[in-house]
Every structure is written in C-alpha cells, then in structure tokens.
Known about the structure:
By secondary structure, the protein is of the alpha/beta class. Helix content is about 45%, strand content about 20%. The protein has 13 helices and ten strands. The radius of gyration is 20 Å and the shape is globular. The chain starts with a strand and ends in a 19-residue tail after the last helix. Pathway: Cofactor biosynthesis; (R)-pantothenate biosynthesis; (R)-pantoate from 3-methyl-2-oxobutanoate: step 2/2.
Amino acid sequence: MRIAILGAGGVGGYFGARLAAAGSDVTFIARGKHREAMLERGLRIESPLGNLTLKDVKVVGTSAEAGEVDLVFMTVKLWDTDDAAQSLIPLVERGASVVSFQNGVQKDETLRKYLPAASIIGGVSYIAAVIGEPGVIVHSGAMQKLVFGEYDGSRSARVTALCDACQKAGIGAEISDDIERLIWEKFVFLVGLSGMTSAVRKSIGAIRENARTRALLLDVMQEVVAVGKAKGVALRDDFAQDRLAFCDTLPASMISSMYSDLQRGNRLELPWLSGGVASLGEALNVPTPCNRVIADILSPYADGGETAQPTSPAAPR
C-alpha cells in the first residue's frame, strides 16, 4: 500500500516506521526539527520489541507533496484536525482513504465536515510512544496495536489490505465490525486516565490506591459511558467498572500523555477529552459534573505555556 503518515509523532512515527521497514511505501508528512532530523539522519525507533532505524526516509513538509497515496494515517494532535483534514481534500479527490488514529470520539465527525464519509475508516491505536528527540521515537511497553474498520461493519478490500500490511510488519492489527463502539471504549479509559492523572498530578498507581481518588476515577469514566449510551453507542452498563479493573493491571508509574504535556507546558487535548465529555453531556442533557470540574481545573493550562509547577513563592504564614 502507498501510505501517507500525517503527523510523524509517537503514534504515526512508530507505526509508519514498522510498515516502511516491512516494505510498504510510506511517506511521512512532518514539520520542524523532527522533519529536519528525519531528512538528515533518518528515523529511529527505540522499543522493547526491537530497535529500528530507517536511513532513507520519505518525508515531506505538506500533504500536497505526498503524491499519489492509497491511505492516509491521521495522527496529528486533535487541535490540528480541521487544518489537516482540509489539506487532504486533493488526496481524497484522487482516491485516497483516511483513517484517524487520534484520541477522542469527535475526530471523525470533524473529518466528515471536509471529506466524504465514504473515504473515512474508523480507527483506534493502542501504544505508549513519544518523540524522545527529533528523529527518534521511544516506545514504552509491549503494547502496539491498531484496530480499524468500516463504519457500516463491512470487511472491505481496503481494511483487509491494511490489516495484511500491519501483520507483515509485526504490528498487532484487527478489523472491527463495530468500530464506533471500540472508539468509545478506548475513550472511556482515556478520559479517566488523562483527566485524573493531570488533575491529581499523580500516576495511576497513587490514584487507584487512594479510596477517594479511586472512586472519583470511576465516576469520571461512568459519566463517559452515560454520554456514549445517550448517543446510541452500545456500551455495557458496567463498562466503567471493567475499565477500573483494567487500571489495576497497569504499571503503578503510568501517567497519561496529557499529564506529560502538562508537566512540559505543552498544549493539552483537554477540550476533546474531559472537556469534550462535558460539552457532549450538555448537548445531550446528561450530567457530567466530574468531567466538567476537571476541565475547569485544567483550563488555565489548556493552551500551553505554563507548567503545573509553582512559579512564585508560597504566601507567608
């Protein structure tokens, strides 16, 4: 397959590199120092599953330079989705399909504002990976999986071809006949992990061991389930409890990428995570007080530029 990776960060960089190493025709669309490093030194993956260095990387600066492609991985941050989707219009008009492996549940709704619904494949990624330094992707843990599928549940030629390419590359891959439900299932956990680690400023281990923060984590995830069910998604009534049990299996030191961004003073995906739950809840008349409070608490940091660390002396006592 001819695949373009729009956003060569942790997710796009990792999976794109694995696909390229296995023989897929991959073009990375990147920018800044990361793009410069990829052009000069290639792309390196550091992973417990085996390191990888691509020395001859196809990398361009814009979608217009990507040429003819069959499929685009959308892996930019959520705030870039509108601009990124508009940049893909010429590629889609020439026959490309688009699969978003971004966070959140509103991503494909945004894509449909600019691109034909038939061009969009639903997708979910499961991986912990970040840009360690320009040109280097650092993968933590053993999980690296992509799940994708048509919104009508069909097993199309394009999702079958993508699954074959992923499996050839050693990537865990599955085709789902209910991709919207899987996107929401990941969202339930992601909102809980991102909101709580960022608001509490602690790892998942500390949160799950404290009775009050553990209960709050469950409440946060239950609100997401309630909103999803109000939108007609077939989530189990006890799915939040299932995700809480899953949290008990995670390394105690695990934090969310949003908490990592908070610590570094980066922009946050908050409006699409806890903030997105609160907005959807308001539109659907579903109460979401816990997510609303988390969104309000973190709002001073949402645009980046500030860290969660104190910046002035404590008041005298």
